[in-house]
Automatic annotation (TrEMBL):
<dbReference type="GO" id="GO:0141152">
    <property type="term" value="F:glycerol-3-phosphate dehydrogenase (NAD+) activity"/>
</dbReference>
<feature type="binding site">
    <location>
        <position position="13"/>
    </location>
    <ligand>
        <name>NADPH</name>
    </ligand>
</feature>
<keyword id="KW-0560">Oxidoreductase</keyword>
<feature type="binding site">
    <location>
        <position position="258"/>
    </location>
    <ligand>
        <name>NAD(+)</name>
    </ligand>
</feature>
<dbReference type="InterPro" id="IPR013328">
    <property type="entry name" value="6PGD_dom2"/>
</dbReference>
<feature type="active site" description="Proton acceptor">
    <location>
        <position position="194"/>
    </location>
</feature>
<feature type="binding site">
    <location>
        <position position="284"/>
    </location>
    <ligand>
        <name>NADPH</name>
    </ligand>
</feature>
<dbReference type="GO" id="GO:0046168">
    <property type="term" value="P:glycerol-3-phosphate catabolic process"/>
</dbReference>
<feature type="binding site">
    <location>
        <position position="194"/>
    </location>
    <ligand>
        <name>sn-glycerol 3-phosphate</name>
    </ligand>
</feature>
<feature type="binding site">
    <location>
        <position position="143"/>
    </location>
    <ligand>
        <name>NAD(+)</name>
    </ligand>
</feature>
<dbReference type="GO" id="GO:0005975">
    <property type="term" value="P:carbohydrate metabolic process"/>
</dbReference>
<keyword id="KW-0521">NADP</keyword>
<feature type="binding site">
    <location>
        <begin position="9"/>
        <end position="14"/>
    </location>
    <ligand>
        <name>NAD(+)</name>
    </ligand>
</feature>
<keyword id="KW-1208">Phospholipid metabolism</keyword>
<dbReference type="InterPro" id="IPR036291">
    <property type="entry name" value="NAD(P)-bd_dom_sf"/>
</dbReference>
<dbReference type="GO" id="GO:0006650">
    <property type="term" value="P:glycerophospholipid metabolic process"/>
</dbReference>
<protein>
    <recommendedName>
        <fullName>Glycerol-3-phosphate dehydrogenase [NAD(P)+]</fullName>
        <ecNumber>1.1.1.94</ecNumber>
    </recommendedName>
</protein>
Length: 333
């Protein structure tokens, strides 16, 4: 049955998901704060700021009026970066009218409590009557390939596997394959921290460290992510599926990843401070690096990769220190 879907954010991923859901016959309304993007979607059926010369499904509508965007919503997709989630939730609570299935797509963690962003979202909606269930979408899915309708495999995760199964069907079609899963902690920590590993992989690539080194780095990243996620009750199986292994492989090996590209830019521009000043796009792995570093300190977890990348990003240590030190004295599970 067709659903009324509202997508918060007219960014790259929100637009890509709007296309999938519109292709699937759902009524898709995007909410954006950039008037030019809203007009571009409504008039030209494009979001040319993110995707030049690509037409999106002409049935997608957009608005900059949040109250109107939330009028008849059954499925609410949070398509903004993690730093914007808290603010957006306050606005949704103000204007929301119906009980909605929440689908988070932000790949980040809670920087205040050093915990899960899903816990923040669930807490904000508790007692409002606005949240039917909480779900989140994770997996290797760079927006440009989703817009181009290339085959993509993902997990829709919820505490309730039945809710995950039911809502996975809304997204699934002949190029977008969404599977239900019930390990929110594993998926969320995997998604947030693979972005930081991708920055490290970009640094390796910038230095031409070699294919052996890249493969070892991805393996070390997976290990260290799992060691952290285990503390939050994550399942090991999550690290074998699209949300865990899949998204890590993609982001840590593709120039289509903004996190990977930041790593390359750090090498090209000499240090992280300069590269970050010149970065205009969303790079979630920077905030995740600090959160991972603090979680490791708090939980007394020894993590070679996350410690070194934190020093590079936050104390402007030389990027070469990653290659020189990351494989020394590692703790593999
Ligand atoms: N791009 C991708 O391939 C994928 C991204 N993701 C995740 O999805 C999340 C969003 O990323 P992505 O779409 O790429 O990011 P983008 O930077 O492309 O877009 C983010 C959008 O959110 C908007 N925005 C920011 N704050 C608000 C707000 N308060 N209210 C409404 N809109 C707001 C931005 O507007 P403005 O431009 O004015 O700031 C922008 O249009 C991230 O967590 C990312 O990791 C997940 C899978 C794939
Ligand atoms: O998460 C992504 C693909 O699954 C997108 O990665 P970037 O944010 O690094 O572009």
């Amino acid at each position: 049955m067709n659903k009324n879907v509202t997508i918060i954010g007219t960014g790259a991923y929100g637009t890509a998901l709007a296309n999938v859901l519109s292709d699937n016959g759902h009524n898709v309304l995007m909410y954006g704060i950039e008037e030019t993007q809203v007009n571009d979607i409504n008039i030209n059926h494009e979001n040319s700021f993110f995707f030049k010369n690509i037409k999106i499904n002409s049935k997608i509508k957009a608005t900059s009026d949040l109250a109107a965007a939330l009028e008849n919503t059954e499925i609410l997709i949070l398509g903004v970066p993690s730093f914007a989630i808290r603010g957006v939730l306050q606005d949704i609570k103000k204007y929301g009218k119906n009980e909605m299935v929440i689908v988070n797509t932000a790949k980040g963690l809670d920087d205040k409590e050093l915990g899960l962003l899903s816990d923040v979202i669930k807490k904000e909606f508790a007692g409002t009557g606005l949240m039917k269930c909480y779900t989140a979408l994770y997996g290797p899915s760079v927006a440009i390939e989703v817009i181009e309708r290339k085959p993509t495999g993902l997990m829709l995760v919820s505490d309730d596997i039945n809710a995950a199964s039911e809502n996975a069907k809304i997204f699934t079609n002949e190029y977008f394959f969404v599977y239900p899963w019930d390990d929110i902690a594993g998926c969320e920590i995997g998604a947030a921290l693979k972005n930081t590993v991708a920055i490290a992989a970009g640094i390796f690539s910038g230095f031409k460290a070699g294919d052996n080194a890249q493969a070892s780095l991805i393996t070390l990243g997976l290990n260290e992510i799992y060691i952290i996620a285990k503390e939050f009750g994550a399942k090991v199986e999550t690290f074998l599926n699209y949300a865990g292994l899949g998204d890590l492989i993609l982001t840590a090996s593709s120039v289509k990843s903004r996190n990977f590209r930041l790593g390359v830019a750090i090498v090209e521009q000499g240090d992280a401070k300069t590269a970050l000043l010149n970065t205009q796009y969303t790079v979630e792995g920077v905030a995740s690096a600090e959160i991972a570093y603090k979680i490791c300190k708090k939980m007394k977890i020894s993590s070679s990769l996350f410690e070194i990348i934190y020093e590079i990003l936050y104390n402007n240590n030389r990027p070469i220190s990653l290659i020189n030190n990351v494989f020394k004295n590692v703790n593999l599970v």
